[in-house]
Amino acid sequence: MADQHKTRISVDIYGQTYKMVGTETSGHMRLVASVVDDKMREINAHNPSLDSTKLAVLTAVNTVHDYLKLKETVEQLEEELRKLKG
Question: Where is the signal peptide (predicted)?
């Protein structure tokens, strides 16, 4: 039954079509695919000799790095907010 509420779309990432399934809106899922595609193309522009597997891994590494930095910033801001409230 829970499967009924899942969004299913096809997206293009770096010249390949992928089927995405998730609980987010199709717009959100397309945005995610677009950001991944943009990041892969950006990295490829600086490293044109990388094959698609290495390019995908480098994209994942860069994305997780960005995520961890943002998470750290959010945690610092939450701590500052707690101090201001306390």
Answer: none
Judged on CB neighbours under 10 Å (0-12, 13-18, 19+), 4 is exposed
Among 23, 56, 25, 28, which residue's Cα sits nearest to residue 41? 56
- CA 23 vs. chain centroid, Å, equals 15
Let me know: does 53 contact 61? Beta carbons within 8 Å. Answer: no
Amino acid at 1: M
| Distance, first Cα to last Cα, the chain | 45
Q: For residue range 4-45, list pLDDT tens digits in order.
A: 689 999 999 999 999 999 999 999 999 999 999 999 999 999
**Could you count the other beta carbons within 10 Å of the beta carbon of residue 26?**
13
Q: Where exactly are the structural domains of the chain?
A: 2-85
